[in-house]
Design brief:
The complex is a heterodimer of chains A (251) and B (66). With 251 residues, chain A is an all-alpha fold. Chain A has one domain. Chain A is built from eight helices and no strands. The N and C termini of chain A lie far apart (55 Å). The longest helix of chain B is centred in the middle third of the chain and has 38 residues. Chain B has two helices and no strands. The chains are: A mainly alpha (251), B mainly alpha (66). At the A-B interface, helix 2, helix 3, helix 4 and helix 8 of A face helix 1 of B.
């Protein structure tokens, strides 16, 4: 009896399954985000203190949440590669890094645009902002490390080790607003600290962004499986041509 | 829709999300097409994966064993 992860260890089976799941995730993400945008701009009220700028929260919080979740996925996949040698673990880790970097950039950028009218500055070097900036650089570092090592197996292992070391950053980001004095507001508690009139649109946008992330991740994984197939076929083609050419060379 | 004196900050935030996510999705779609085209070109030259059938259909290891 195979477990789900064992069944998905076959890239061909993964390609068949992901071909069916990808349009479902993409369609659901589009529908949920469109509904979320309707709630954000036409239903949710302005905040009594922040006014209309609170509408940035509906994209900033999901981006920040996905920046951390994507890194969690990279770390989990890296663990799967190093410990279980799951054939798709490195594919998953490699695919998640640029998407995580994109959401981290968006969390920083939208946070900066939210900060200017609320704090009077685009940036302060406090614990929350700085630790998220370090996360962004860590994503860039993972991409740079992988592309700098020619041997793909070695690159995968080195990147996985760095990703696992970097996972210590996640609790620092999460608890930075509790451990240090900061301009940043405390963590968003979906069930307690957000007024119900804003909680529902925020939850809808968070679900929509998460579905979008999984759609992008599935697509990136499919691309990576195809890239590896192309590489393997090119190598087989070169080997076949070398074999055919050998007798001629010998003569 | 009146978003008040800070409307530019709000619109710029949403525009950034649209540009970054749209760009990422477009890059992924283009990359997928590029890989598919490269795979097709190789297969047309007669280079096939072991798991690919003679008609181009795919089978996995378990199916090949049965």
């Amino acid at each position: 009896m195979q477990t789900l992860t064992q069944r998905l260890a076959n890239p061909t089976r993964f390609m068949q399954l992901s071909a069916k799941l990808l349009p479902v995730f993409a369609g659901a993400a589009a529908a949920v985000i469109l509904y979320g945008l309707y709630l954000v701009f036409f239903v949710s009220p302005a905040d009594y203190q922040q006014g209309e700028t609170v509408r940035i929260m509906y994209i900033h919080v999901p981006s920040a949440w996905l920046a951390m979740m994507a890194y969690g996925l990279v770390a989990l996949s890296s663990f799967g590669l190093l410990v279980f040698r799951h054939p798709l673990a490195d594919v998953s880790a490699k695919a998640a890094v640029p998407i995580g970097a994109a959401f981290t950039f968006l969390a920083l950028f939208t946070g900066s645009l939210w900060g200017k009218p609320m704090w009077g500055t685009y940036w302060v070097w406090d614990a929350r902002l700085t630790s998220v900036l370090v996360l962004f650089f860590l994503y860039l570092g993972l991409m740079a490390l992988r592309s700098s090592v020619e041997d793909e197996n070695l690159a995968a292992k080195l990147t996985a080790v760095l990703a696992l070391v970097g996972v210590t950053l996640l609790p620092i980001i999460k608890f930075s607003v509790d451990w240090w004095n900061t301009l940043h507001q405390p963590s968003t508690g979906f069930t307690s600290t957000v007024d119900p009139s804003m909680r529902w649109p925020l939850l809808v946008m968070a679900v929509g962004f998460s579905l979008l992330f999984f759609a992008l991740h599935l697509k990136a994984m499919r691309n990576e499986v195809l890239r590896r197939r192309v590489k393997a076929l090119r190598m087989a083609d070169v080997a076949r041509r070398d074999t055919n050419a050998e007798p001629v060379a010998a003569e | 829709m009146d978003l008040g004196p800070h409307a530019a900050f709000i619109w710029m935030s949403y525009a950034a999300v649209a540009v970054v996510i749209g760009g990422l999705a477009a890059w992924l779609i283009a990359d997928g097409r590029r890989q598919q085209a490269a795979l097709k070109a190789l297969e047309q030259r007669g280079v096939r994966r072991r798991s690919a059938g003679s008609d181009g259909s795919e089978t996995n290891a378990a199916e090949r064993r049965s």
